[in-house]
Amino acid sequence: MSESSFYHYLLLGWFGLAAAIFIALFFVVAPYGRHMARGYGRSISSRGGWIIMESTAPLIMAACFALGWGQLSAPGIAFFVLWEAHYLHRAYIYPLQRKGSDKAMPLLVVSLGFIFNSVNGYLNGRYLFHFSGGYPQDWLTDPRFIAGTLLFVCGFVVNRQSDWILAGLRKAGEGDYRIANRGLFRWISCPNYLGEISIWSGWAIATWSLAGLSFAFWTAANLVPRARSHHLWDQKNLAGYPAERKALVPGVW
């Protein structure tokens, strides 16, 4: 089987698996963070687990970038910079900046995250720097690139601001959850997830690719059910939680 055929079937299967995961996560909550539960086998430090499972995304994208050096263009370089800007922060800066206690994370979750980021990095990186044939220089002025990049940047800002607000709720070593009342937290429980969904929706538009769309689809499939779980947990466990606050979309849901 050629790599092209392998890539095609993997991409199709990836969409199907995302749909299955979306349904499953309304019944089974991924066991980490506030939803940590027993019965999922051995666990490791959440900071260490986070770094392990997220590191594959920037590394695999960098490898695809290097392999596609011969057909690089300015748009391709721009996509590489956007991806790495997100993931270098996500994989290395974010987990080390967290102030709360270092909770456990099941190795099962780390392994699944590692696999996801490996496959997702391959699908997006290999398309951008090989199967796309290279983006033309004038893609930088295409409305899809401009609109997608703006959405990406807006989502990036929302995501980082939300993480910063959450980090400020705790002192080093503290593990209690508290109510955030700044930024978009005034209206929704999970603005960090809204930012993440916006980032990869923007990526799908800017790259105008099925690989990019698969990432946006996976992000929503994972984070929409988790936002619901977070919202219900906060309402149940945090005294005085604002009754008017929605889960993910201000004034809607």
What does this structure look like?
- With 253 residues, this protein is an all-alpha fold.
- It has one domain (3-237).
- It has helices at residues 3-24, 46-67, 74-97, 107-131, 143-167, 191-207, 210-237, and strands at 43-45, 104-106.
- The protein has a two-stranded antiparallel sheet with strand order 1-2.
- The radius of gyration is 19 Å and the shape is globular.
Provide the succession of SSEs. Answer: HEHHEHHHH
Outline the low-pLDDT stretches: none
Q: Number of domains in the coordinates?
A: 1
What gap, in angstroms, lies between the N and C termini? Answer: 45 Å
Largest sheet properties: 2 strands, antiparallel
What topology emerges from the helices and strands here?
Elements: H1 3-24, E1 43-45, H2 46-67, H3 74-97, E2 104-106, H4 107-131, H5 143-167, H6 191-207, H7 210-237
Antiparallel strand pairs: 1-2
Helix pairs in contact: 1-7, 2-3, 2-4, 3-5, 4-7, 5-6, 6-7
Brief characterization of the structure:
The protein has helices spanning 3-24, 46-67, 74-97, 107-131, 143-167, 191-207, 210-237, and strands at 43-45, 104-106.
